[in-house]
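Q: What does the assembled structure look like for these inputs?
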Amino acid sequence: MSEITLRIEGRYRRETTDAGRLRTTLHVEEVAALAYATAAERVLDGEERVVATRFAGHEREHSDAVMTMILALALEVRRHAVEKDVDNLMPGFGSLGPRETLAALLELETAAIAGQQALGRQLANLDALRTVAMVMAGGAQHVVVLRDLLGDRPLTNLY
Amino acid sequence: MTLRRREFLGALAAGALLFGCAGDEDPAVAPDADVLAPLLAGEQAAVAALAGLAGATAIRDQDRRHAARLRTVLAGLGDRRAGAPASDPEPAGQRKQQNVYDYVAALPRLADPDLRVMVMELLASEAEHLAALRLATGEDPVPDAFAGFTPPLT
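A:
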């Protein structure tokens, strides 16, 4: 298990309430949006840059959806992710080459999905779980595209 | 923000508020087997829809394993429904999209938290299948951010 997976898993493990778990989901989605945007600006070219720019937009939509759910449940959001949070969750991300950048994004998506799947057992609010499920399904589709760009096979997971 | 997106976010908020107000009466909860049985039928329909589709062997194999997993769980719940493949297979992409919708809809109806995790896992796989099938035919593999819940305006 690499550093990104360990850090995301650790963040989820520390939380014991719906509020904390949903805030963690929001944080990871916000970091993903920043990471895709950074990758598009800094290191990726051509089709890979187009994909990263689009997926950054998707991750912002995911963040908006989770944020809407958090506010609807009258929960507090203490802070939003900023650029340094990318390095906290994905150490060294800013200095990776193109292929390693795509691999790090794939690991981020995969770890986010694992954390969100575990919420099936942990979240008491099942309407919030449905929102997390829609976000997770979007992330799972990103995984396919990232694997294809990396030449990984098979493209899909059994889970 | 587009109108569609506002509508989507509004629906999420309304759902959360309704859920929060529903504490006075316990809704009738279907036994978990009744929730899972249609999902098994969906997986079997996907296996049928993918028959003979070029490049879909790995996906079809994963669907068979999804169906086997659901069948095992249903048997553990005392449900011996075997399900039945669709007699008139749908287009594979259409079937996969429906499976994604059905898995999400099933989540809040399941009482057993471990079964909710299983459904989240199967959902992720089905969403991936949908993207991979689109990729294979040259379509945009991820046309929206929520695996079909917010289709782009055409």
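Chain A is about 75% helix and 0% strand.
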